[in-house]
Write a structure and sequence with these properties.
Blueprint (H helix, E strand, L loop, with lengths): L8 H8 L6 E4 L6 H10 L4 E6 L2 H11 L5 E4 L5 H7 L5 E7 L4 H5 L25 H7 L2 H12 L4 H11 L8 H12 L9 H11 L2 H15 E11 L2 H16 L3 E3 L9 H6 L7 E7 L1
Parallel strand pairs: 1-2, 1-4, 2-3, 4-5
Antiparallel strand pairs: 5-7, 6-7
Helix pairs in contact: 7-8, 7-10, 8-9, 11-12
Bound molecules: S-adenosylmethionine (SAM).
Length: 290
């Protein structure tokens, strides 16, 4: 299975103040990189509940954490409060959200997240879900596609790309990642350093998995289960994710529910980015429950 290096591991444990005997939720357990460290620091008297909506990620986490007593649950992090209660707890000392997709989802064949492949357009984190990227590009109206590209990826050429997608599908259903990437590249005309389909793929992934609404609901659920003095830590990888977290935390601070610990988001060190380039856009934020 593809390796996924946990991002900003030291900063996460410091912001969460992981300590022996503590109880923590890793709301995006993925392949268990952060959870493994959290458990090691929480010790035998501590507990980590790991949540993920992706069965394959959970399988990886189960393998890695099999002897540690981590409680692993399949679900969306918007369901975090119910999952914590079902695990027999009503409050916890810390919650981590490491948003987005893992390297495993991005690189394992057949997941349809990456534009260089002849794979079916899929992009579902939870493969039992009905909505796929293929159904969005083939059934949404031109206006809906344009709005999705604008709102979820700040795509400048949203109109042009939406028109190209809807024109193409009058002849043939768009089936593969490479096919969609080709349509977007042709609509762009010129090529820069970044692949022209990058933003389209980001917007589609967010839409398929309803990622922005999930962030708001997940953060709300986390505040509901954090004890006073408990800590929240988030890692975002693009501006819309980070903006959503920042706005949520600002409102919660104004309402007196939390104190923001990171006035400015933390970024990975130069050494970490050199070792793991996919960490380069990470922005970490922390808050304490009041
Ligand atoms: C960046 S990866 C996490 C990697 C993990 N921290 C590690 O060290 O291995 C993000 C994970 O969150 C999961 N995820 C994303 N949105 C989710 C949601 N709304 N509910 C539950 N899991 C979600 C994805 O399936 C993915 O496995």
């Amino acid at each position: 299975m593809t390796v996924h290096l946990p991002v900003m591991l030291r900063e996460v444990t410091e912001v969460l103040r992981i300590s022996p005997g503590g109880t923590y939720v890793d709301a995006t357990v993925g392949l268990g990189g952060h959870a493994e460290k959290m458990l090691a620091l929480a010790g035998a008297g501590g507990m980590v509940i790991g949540i993920d909506r992706d069965d394959e990620a959970l399988m990886g986490a189960r393998e890695r954490l099999s002897d540690t007593g981590t409680v692993l649950r399949k679900g969306r992090f918007s369901e975090l409060a119910a999952i914590v209660r079902e695990a027999g707890l009503h409050e916890v000392d810390g919650v981590l959200f490491d948003f987005g997709v893992s390297m495993m989802q991005f690189k394992e064949p057949g997941r349809g997240f990456s534009f260089n492949t002849e794979e079916p357009l899929d992009m579902r984190m939870d493969r039992t879900q009905e909505l796929t990227a293929e159904s969005i590009v083939n059934t949404y109206s031109e206006k809906e596609i344009e709005k999705m590209l604008r709102e979820y990826a700040d795509e400048w050429f949203s109109k042009r790309i939406a028109r190209a997608i809807t024109a193409y599908r009058t002849k043939k259903r768009i089936a593969t990642c490479a096919e969609l990437a080709g349509i977007v590249s042709a609509a762009y005309g010129k090529r820069g350093r970044v692949h022209p389909a990058t933003k389209t793929f980001q917007a589609l992934r967010i839409s398929v998995n309803d990622e922005i609404a999930e962030i708001g609901k997940g953060l709300g659920a986390a505040l509901g289960v954090l004890r006073r003095g408990g800590r929240l830590c988030t890692i975002a990888y693009h501006s819309l994710e980070d903006r959503t977290v920042k706005n949520f935390l600002r409102v919660a601070e104004r309402e007196g529910t939390i104190r923001i610990i990171t006035k400015k988001p933390l970024s990975p060190s130069y050494d970490e980015v050199r070792e793991n380039p996919s960490a380069r856009s990470a922005k970490l934020r922390g808050a304490e429950r009041l």
